Amino acid sequence: MLVIILISYGGGNLRLITIPILIVSICVISACSTNPVPKTEFEFANRLAQDDLWKEAHFRWSKLLEQGKENAALYNNIAVAHEKMGEFEEAERAYRKALKLSPNNSTIKSNYDKFKRMLKQDKDKNEKNKKKKDKK
């Protein structure tokens, strides 16, 4: 589609100048939109998590649970959100629910194993700091 622009020059003479503005605009706009619009609330929550908006992502995943859409992936994502927000007991419970629903899911197992290692490292670090403090 072409846009026709009328430009008036002195003396009342009009000249038609055609400029493919619309085509250029559409091409530029479509090239800029590389992220497709999420098709589901689950995808939208995942996108929020990718943007480190864990509280909002958690809210949306929790709403899906309230709607009866319980599944292992949902609990796994909720567990990761709790972990990222420093809510470790809640993360533990969500990981366990996810594994109960899908005990052989390698992604959930991997996330849970990383979570447990992180907790152990944190505990070891705290104990080490406590011992140093007690020596003083």
Percent range of helical residues:
55-70%
By CATH, the topology of the largest domain is Serine Threonine Protein Phosphatase 5, Tetratricopeptide repeat
Count of beta strands: 2
Radius of gyration: 27 Å
Tell me the major beta sheet: 2 strands, antiparallel
Q: List segments where confidence is low: pLDDT < 50 over at least 5 consecutive residues.
A: 1-9, 13-33
Helix/strand order, N-terminal first: EEHHHHHH
Strand content: 5-15%
Query: Which structural class do you get from the secondary structure elements?
Result: mainly alpha
CATH class of the largest domain: Mainly Alpha
Strand order of the largest sheet: 1-2
Fold and architecture overview:
With 136 residues, this protein is mostly helical. 68% of the residues lie in helices and 9% in strands. The longest helix has 30 residues, at 106-135.
What is the strand and helix layout of this fold?
Layout: E1 3-8, E2 14-19, H1 21-32, H2 41-50, H3 54-66, H4 72-84, H5 88-101, H6 106-135
Antiparallel strand pairs: 1-2
Helix pairs in contact: 2-3, 3-4, 4-5, 5-6
